[in-house]
Structure to design on (688 residues):
């Protein structure tokens, strides 16, 4: 599975820089749908989860009012579900019907392999100064974790959400206690997703020193040769070795689009961090 | 008068005698005082030595319930003018003995603090309670009592709360002031009039044990329901801990139970006693969405347990008896079935014995949350530090090269 969740790179203002394609338009659109609906789900779900907190009623009013909050939550859920199913269909089409190589295994796949385990260990050793920085391939281990965390999260939160939405129907297959359990599963897994995305993903991908303040590649789809070489040396070298690097050549993104993407991206990060602060205040009060 | 009569008699005879005789009878029958007293007391500026007004509005007095009485029926001791130096105070009890007797043991027994006029108004303009001009006409009662039992009222001196504004905002006050319903409960419907007792007095209509009967005077069916339920049984047995009407509805701030305000405020009231049930309820979606405020539809205690006829689950008549669960849950959840009603609306995720499945699911989810976040938090923090160090090192190296 080769669905990228995000990448790491910084936009380089260098004028003569060569640019290479990392994400297709469909993949970038998928990320846009994903973060838009995720923010919507978090903003409408958190007031319900923490309805006792001092901000719950105000936030509920701000995101559409009490009457609309559950409707908006379900609306975002349905859109996200459709996006998820389209993604699964696309992966199946590429991997099973078209027999495209490298979808389920290899350096371009999202499936974890032995190198990811070694990279994790090596990266941690590098953190504490006990070894060199590992060389990463197209998708680093934390990127794969993000992908699978979101994948698993959508299955778990989605299933438990629909089980609550259509409880009498689901009751035909689920034992009675499961109807109680789905709320715990839904809210705890969603809480994990909110805390993870709004802190770990934001920092790992956008806010850490190497990418600060925002990695634009998920919005523009392209990155400069220098970034490519530095961030993903194994993939870069392989493409050179195979002589296919030039196939990835792309135009530099237009300035207006970069500006637009920055506004959207920073808005998303701002909303996310706000929700993170609210969540933490509710959780620890 | 006698001298005048003698003069007339001396001047006339025959049929004049009859006319004069009639005049005499009329004069003798004229209420003593009403006209004579008003000769002076109709002066609106008339005051006594202390500056208190001595003015009497003859017209009002004439139309009042006491309009047929003579002034000295009440102002005993006054035979004519000049008045005696010391006058006996007006004693309403001379005629209204029953009321005076009832008042004597009431909270308003102190006649100086609560003279009859403090409720009945102007002594010379007292009307029957069925007359809209009366201070104790049903629609006027709250305002009359509110003079003392309102904001900054005299009742505050005795540590009593201001209840008048609460009442006026209540459903009873609204029905009375906005709709003019004579049957709407006013102060004296619950408290009585002359024999008002403290709610701590077992004889009082507002004593806890008597409240159901007091409210039941109007809300008869609800009283019957209440008596059939667990709370009513407990009250009948003398268990003062069980709630009565006012514990859930309050005494003066009573709102329409279907209003979101009431639906919001009353679940915690049940929780005052049913603490464990309230705490487990708060873990459910019913509560989470319900507490947001606008969602009045989600189930509150009485939507499942009934409000007045609350019965134990084991009672076959209880709506939460297993036999009725499909119907009870089905009120909101269309398609509720036997498996659906196995849902536990008071599940406790921390109680392994009661909800083992839920207990382990929660444990797993908590462990997952804590372990993932702990690992990645450490991972990210170390990463930030290392990256920053490398950046600074690189910059320093570059700087050296440039130099």
């Amino acid at each position: 599975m080769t669905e990228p969740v995000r990448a790491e790179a910084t936009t380089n203002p260098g004028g003569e820089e060569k640019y290479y394609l990392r994400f297709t338009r469909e993949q970038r659109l998928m990320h846009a749908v994903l973060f838009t609906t995720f923010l919507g789900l978090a903003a409408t779900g958190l007031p319900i989860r923490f309805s006792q907190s001092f901000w719950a009623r105000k936030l509920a009013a701000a995101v559409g009012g009490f009457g609309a909050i559950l409707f908006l939550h379900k609306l975002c859920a349905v859109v996200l579900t459709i996006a998820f199913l389209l993604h699964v269909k696309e992966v199946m089409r590429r991997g099973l019907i078209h027999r495209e190589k490298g979808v389920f295994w290899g350096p371009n796949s999202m499936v974890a392999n032995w190198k990811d385990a070694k990279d994790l260990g090596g990266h941690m050793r590098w953190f504490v100064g006990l070894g060199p920085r590992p060389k990463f391939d197209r998708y680093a281990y934390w990127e794969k974790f993000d992908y699978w965390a979101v994948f698993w999260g959508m299955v778990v939160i989605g299933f438990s959400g629909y089980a609550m939405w259509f409880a009498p129907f689901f009751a035909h297959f689920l034992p009675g206690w499961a109807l109680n359990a789905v709320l715990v599963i839904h809210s705890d897994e969603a809480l994990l997703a909110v805390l993870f995305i709004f802190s770990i993903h934001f920092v790992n991908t956008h806010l850490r020193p190497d990418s600060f303040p925002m990695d634009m590649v998920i919005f523009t789809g392209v990155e400069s040769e220098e970034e490519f070489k530095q961030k993903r040396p194994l993939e870069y070298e392989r493409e050179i070795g195979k002589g296919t690097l030039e196939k990835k050549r792309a135009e530099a993104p237009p300035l207006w689009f970069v500006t637009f993407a920055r506004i959207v991206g920073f808005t998303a990060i701002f909303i996310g961090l706000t929700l993170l602060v609210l969540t933490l205040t509710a959780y620890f009060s | 008068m006698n001298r005048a009569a003698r003069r007339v008699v001396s001047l006339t005879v025959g049929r004049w005698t009859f006319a004069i005789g009639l005049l005499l009878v009329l004069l003798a029958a004229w209420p003593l005082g009403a006209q004579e007293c008003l000769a002076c007391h109709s002066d609106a500026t008339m005051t006594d030595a202390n500056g208190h007004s001595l003015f009497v509005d003859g017209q009002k007095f004439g139309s009042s319930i006491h309009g047929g009485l003579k002034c000295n029926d009440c102002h005993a001791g006054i035979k004519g003018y000049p008045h005696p130096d010391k006058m006996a105070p007006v004693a309403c009890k001379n005629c209204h003995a029953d009321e005076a007797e009832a008042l004597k043991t009431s909270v308003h027994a102190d006649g100086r603090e609560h003279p009859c006029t403090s409720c009945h108004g102007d002594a010379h303009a007292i009307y029957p309670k069925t007359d809209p001009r009366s201070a104790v006409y049903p629609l006027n009662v709250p305002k009359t009592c509110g003079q003392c039992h309102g904001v900054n009222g005299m009742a505050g001196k005795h540590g009593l709360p201001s209840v008048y504004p609460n009442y006026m905002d209540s459903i009873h006050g609204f029905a009375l002031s906005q709709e003019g319903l004579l049957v709407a409960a006013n102060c004296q419907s619950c408290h009585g009039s002359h024999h008002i007792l403290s709610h701590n007095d077992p004889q009082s209509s507002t004593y806890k044990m008597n409240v159901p009967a007091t409210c039941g005077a109007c809300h008869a069916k609800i009283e019957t329901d209440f008596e059939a339920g667990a709370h009513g049984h407990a009250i009948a047995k003398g268990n003062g801990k069980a709630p009565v009407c006012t514990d859930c509805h309050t005494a003066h701030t009573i709102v329409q139970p279907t209003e979101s305000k009431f639906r919001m405020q009353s679940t915690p009231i049940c929780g005052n006693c049913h603490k464990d049930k309230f705490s487990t309820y708060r873990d459910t979606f019913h509560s989470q969405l319900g507490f947001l405020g606008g969602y009045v539809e989600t189930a509150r205690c009485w939507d499942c347990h009934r409000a007045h006829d609350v019965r134990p689950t084991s009672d076959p008549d209880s709506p939460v008896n297993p036999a009725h669960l499909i119907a009870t849950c089905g009120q909101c959840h269309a398609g509720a079935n036997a498996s659906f009603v196995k849902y536990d609306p008071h599940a406790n995720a921390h109680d392994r014995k009661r909800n083992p499945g839920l207990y382990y699911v929660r444990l797993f989810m908590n462990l997952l949350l804590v372990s993932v976040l702990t690992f990645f938090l450490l991972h990210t923090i170390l990463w930030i530090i290392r990256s920053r160090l490398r950046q600074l090192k690189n910059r320093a190296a570059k700087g050296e090269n440039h130099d």
Notes: Chain B touches chain A through 49 residues (CB under 8 Å). The radius of gyration of chain B is 38 Å. Residues 269-342 of chain B form one domain.
